[in-house]
Structure formats: structure tokens, C-alpha cells
Automatic annotation (TrEMBL):
Keyword terms, alphabetized: CBS domain, Repeat
UniProt keyword annotation of Repeat present: yes
Organism annotation: Urochloa decumbens
Family: Belongs to the SIS family. GutQ/KpsF subfamily.
Upper taxonomic lineage: Eukaryota, Viridiplantae, Streptophyta, Embryophyta, Tracheophyta
NCBIfam families: kpsF (TIGR00393)
Keyword Repeat among record annotations: yes
PANTHER family: ARABINOSE 5-PHOSPHATE ISOMERASE-RELATED, PTHR47476
Protein name: Arabinose 5-phosphate isomerase
Domain SIS: 51-198
Record site feature (Catalytically relevant), residues: K69, E122, E166, H207
Ranges of residues in domain CBS: 224-283, 292-345
């Protein structure tokens, strides 16, 4: 392997106190933009379409593989495709594949091999073995097909990802080529989502956790307060008699209802302060019905929780809660901003 240079110790490197300034970054970002534009301008769309169609038509699983940084990108693209639920997709480590993991490949499966150079020894060793298992092979390389890209010759389909250069000072570190691989892979997956008419519900079924899942799955009924948690009162109740109900349920409001629990209006702690300031001692003689808001924003239990949050934040002014009513305007719950935030939305 030859002799490697002796490097300075980390302590010596720290003593130099290197800095990065905006004047250092600006030309690098400009160069990266030029390299990406070069890729977009020269990408063969017929090759890209053939790649997308091959993934769409795959009768079996779709595996992605690569070495080094290309392997990291391959893993990410595989995970994104798997999250759509259209096909079994996964990452196949090339060295592990050569030591037994290739058993996961069956006839009709697709194997996508990512390589900047198209000459990675590990992938060149894997390709004929995967072909012998009956896999359809696709290479994504930045080296053009030919003698300089032996991997393309070993595969059924090659997609050339045009690369003008790396912005690394030595032109070696894969800091542009991996960006191109990622952009290409993710864009093709977005095209597959459109081609398959992926619905929000289908997407949500594979993302049950995290903010994405909660945004797509949680409905108002999943996070609302109900039954004994509701701050209810009648319109004829005296305001001062309802202070305990107003403050004890943690909603900052009262839901004013009739005998059948039809919503009449809402009365908030803000309404209480304003009424006290305007009426003074006369507040002891006022009923909730006289001072409540009879045209509050409402929402249904089947609405998405994220829709409730949007409704709370909408003009003319934000609110902290929404009464939850059914088709007959009967109160069945209340959803609060605090409850949505606590649920992770």
C-alpha cells in the first residue's frame, strides 16, 4: 500500500486555531452551485426515467449498495423507498453480501449499485454474484460508460450522474458527488410517489412515530379533553359562581351549553378580565350568557389535529382552544393548544 506521511498531532493542529470566514465559504458555495448546475444540465432524462420505471416495475425487492460515502447515500435512498411501502427495499453491504448476505437476493430482485468511479473492487466482485442469483443490476456512476467505468459494463442499466468536480481542495473528497447521488435518488423517489398516487393516509401508515406521523395520524378525538374534563356551564349561570369551573379544568375557558349540550358560546379568562374592568362590582350580577362569545370557532372530532392547530392560529387573532362539536352542534370535547403541543404537534 506504500508509505503514508507522518501527520502532525491533533494538539499541534489545535494550536494553529484555524478559522473559517464568510470570504472562505462564499466561493465554495458558488462552486458547489456551478457543479450542481452542471449535473442538472447534463443529466440524461431518458436514463433517469428508465431507472425510475425499473424501480416501479420491480417484481421483487429493491436493494441498494455502495462503498464508503456512496454506501451511506445508498442506505438513505433505500430507507426512503422502504418508507413509501411500495416495495421491499433495503441496503445490502457489499462486503457482507460476499460473505453470506447475498442470500437475501432472489430472482427478479433489483440491485442498485452506487459508485462515483464505477470501479470499486467490492462492487465489481458483487455484481456477477448478484447476477447469478437472478437480480437485475443498475449502476449509478459519475464515470461515463466505457473502459473507465467497468461497473457499467457489468450491469443491465447504467445511469450516468455527470460530475464536473469536487469542491474539496484536492478534488478528492466526495462532497459534491454524494450530493448529486442524493439529489438524484430522492428526486426519482418523489417521481415514484406521484406515479403511484401515494395518499397521505398511505404515507402516514409507515410513519407512526415522530412529528411526521403525529401530523398525519392524530385526529382531534385522539388529543381532546372530554366528559368530566370539560369546563361546562349554562348561559343563566352567574359569572362569579363559575370561577372554579373556569380555572380548575386547565382550559382557560367555559363552554356555555343548553340542557341538551348544544354549544351556545364560550367565555374565557380574558373575557373575565375585560368584563371585570368594564363592569366593576356589577360583574356580580352578570350571567355567563350575557358576556359569552356566541360565535366561537369550532372543530369536529374527526378532523386532523394539525387542522385544529392551524384553525387556532388563523386570523384575525389566535385562540388557545376549540370546542369540539358534532354535526348537531352538541359539545363532545375541547382541544387546547397546550394539549396539541404536549402531544408533540
Amino acid at each position: 500500500m506504500g508509505s503514508l506521511p507522518v501527520l502532525a498531532s491533533p494538539e499541534c493542529a489545535r494550536e494553529r486555531r484555524a478559522k473559517v470566514s464568510t470570504s472562505d465559504l462564499a466561493p465554495l458555495f458558488s462552486a458547489q452551485r456551478r457543479h450542481l448546475d452542471h449535473f442538472f444540465d447534463r443529466l440524461d432524462m431518458s436514463q433517469a426515467a428508465a431507472f425510475a420505471q425499473a424501480l416501479l416495475d420491480a417484481p421483487g425487492a429493491v436493494f441498494f449498495t455502495g462503498v464508503g460515502k456512496s454506501g451511506i447515500v445508498a442506505r438513505k435512498i433505500a430507507q426512503t423507498l422502504a418508507s413509501l411501502g411500495f416495495a421491499r427495499a433495503g441496503f445490502l453491504a457489499p462486503v457482507d453480501a460476499l460473505h453470506g448476505d447475498i442470500g437475501a437476493i432472489f430472482p427478479g430482485d433489483v440491485l442498485v449499485l452506487l459508485s462515483k468511479s464505477g470501479a470499486s473492487d467490492e462492487l465489481l466482485a458483487l455484481a456477477p454474484c448478484a447476477r447469478a442469483k437472478g437480480a437485475y443490476l443498475i449502476s449509478l456512476t459519475s464515470a461515463a460508460s466505457g473502459g473507465d467505468c467497468p461497473l457499467s459494463s457489468a450491469c443491465d442499466l447504467n445511469v450516468h450522474l455527470p460530475l464536473q468536480g469536487e469542491i474539496c481542495p484536492f478534488g478528492l473528497a466526495p462532497v459534491t458527488s454524494t450530493a448529486i447521488q442524493m439529489v438524484f435518488g430522492d428526486t426519482v423517489i418523489a417521481a415514484i410517489m406521484e406515479a403511484r398516487r401515494l395518499s397521505r393516509d398511505q404515507y402516514a401508515s409507515n410513519h407512526p412515530a415522530g412529528k411526521i406521523g403525529k401530523t398525519l395520524i392524530f385526529k382531534v378525538k385522539d388529543v381532546m379533553k372530554k366528559q368530566n374534563e370539560l369546563p361546562l356551564c349554562k348561559e343563566g349561570d352567574m359569572i362569579m359562581d363559575q370561577l372554579t369551573e373556569l380555572t380548575s379544568k386547565g382550559c382557560g375557558c367555559l363552554l356555555v351549553v343548553d340542557e341538551e349540550h348544544h354549544l351556545i358560546g364560550t367565555f374565557t379568562d380574558g373575557d373575565l378580565r375585560r368584563t371585570l374592568k368594564a363592569s366593576g362590582p356589577a360583574i356580580f350580577n352578570l350571567t355567563v350568557g350575557e358576556m359569552c362569545n356566541r360565535n366561537p370557532r369550532t372543530i369536529t372530532a374527526e378532523a386532523m389535529a394539525v387542522e385544529a392547530m392551524e384553525k387556532m392560529e388563523s386570523p384575525p387573532s389566535p385562540v388557545q382552544f376549540l370546542p369540539v362539536v358534532d354535526d348537531n352542534n352538541i359539545v363532545c370535547g375541547i382541544i387546547t393548544l397546550h394539549g396539541l403541543v404536549s402531544a408533540g404537534l
